[in-house]
Specification:
Layout: H1 2-77, H2 84-94, H3 107-114, H4 124-156, H5 166-172, H6 176-179, H7 182-191, H8 201-241
Helix pairs in contact: 1-2, 1-3, 1-8, 2-5, 4-8
Length: about 240
């Protein structure tokens, strides 16, 4: 009986050890899966940041084009007899795609939160940095949109657009065929003033100065967004490339 009990206890110990080893292996596998997923998340976030970086670059180019157009319009309205077509063309260009603002890619971050995998990210500093990034760039983007709306409102509040050069610019544009028929264009050339009227000149002067200021401020905000993007890129590049 003694031998039997020793044998039974030995069998039990072997089973327990086997279970513990199996649990340890399972835990190790789960840990490895989590670390692999964490690494994938870092790399996906990095890819989206690289897209954000390109988006900011494109928006900066557009902002600089708007600034140049606003400057040309300002120089024209400052003349004793501003040409309506020249002013109108540049004013329109200074407002082009005014409602386009920066929209960060947040697909991966949203997936991390909605899937319940937030605890997969072990580096809490990274999570804090990502959260701060989205908060900051959202604030900058909202400011861009608010400023853009000011410029749009200035156009909407002008009582007589015939005097602003906007229609003159449309008639002269290469897209004129898509806007007006030839008959309408011919009559508009006769009806629309060639020069900006002195009575509306101060209003247009003020409006284009507002547009120029807003465009300059937009570029400054985009540079702030670019700094945020570059900071996050540096952090995530280290994490994505890490093999720890």
């Amino acid at each position: 009986m003694g031998k039997y009990f020793k044998y039974a206890i030995g069998e039990i110990l072997l089973v327990v050890i086997g279970i513990l080893i199996a649990l340890q292996i399972n835990n190790w596998n789960e840990h490895k899966k989590e670390r692999t997923l964490e690494q994938e998340y870092y790399c996906l976030l990095l890819e989206e940041l690289e897209e954000d970086q390109q988006q900011v670059l494109n928006l900066k180019i557009l902002a600089e084009e708007r600034i140049n157009s606003a400057n040309k319009a300002i120089l024209e309205i400052q003349k004793e007899k501003p040409d309506a077509t020249v002013f109108g063309e540049n004013w329109l260009l200074s407002l082009r795609l005014a409602t386009r603002t920066f929209k960060p890619n947040n697909a991966t971050y949203s997936d991390i939160k909605s899937s319940g995998n937030i605890n997969i990210i072990k580096d809490r500093a990274i999570l804090k940095a990502i959260s701060k990034y989205f908060k900051n760039v959202h604030g900058y983007s909202e400011t861009i949109m608010s400023n853009a709306q000011l410029g749009i409102n200035r156009v909407d509040n002008i009582s007589n657009l015939l005097e602003t050069g906007i229609y003159q610019a449309n008639v002269a544009s290469r897209y004129a065929n898509d806007i007006f028929t030839q008959e309408i264009r011919d009559q508009l050339v006769k009806d629309l003033p060639k020069y900006i009227n002195e009575t509306i000149k101060p209003e247009l002067y003020s409006a284009i100065l507002t547009t120029g200021t807003n465009n300059r401020r937009r570029l400054e905000l985009l540079l702030l967004i670019e700094d945020e993007v570059n900071t996050m890129l540096e952090l995530l590049q280290q994490k994505c490339e890490s093999s720890d």
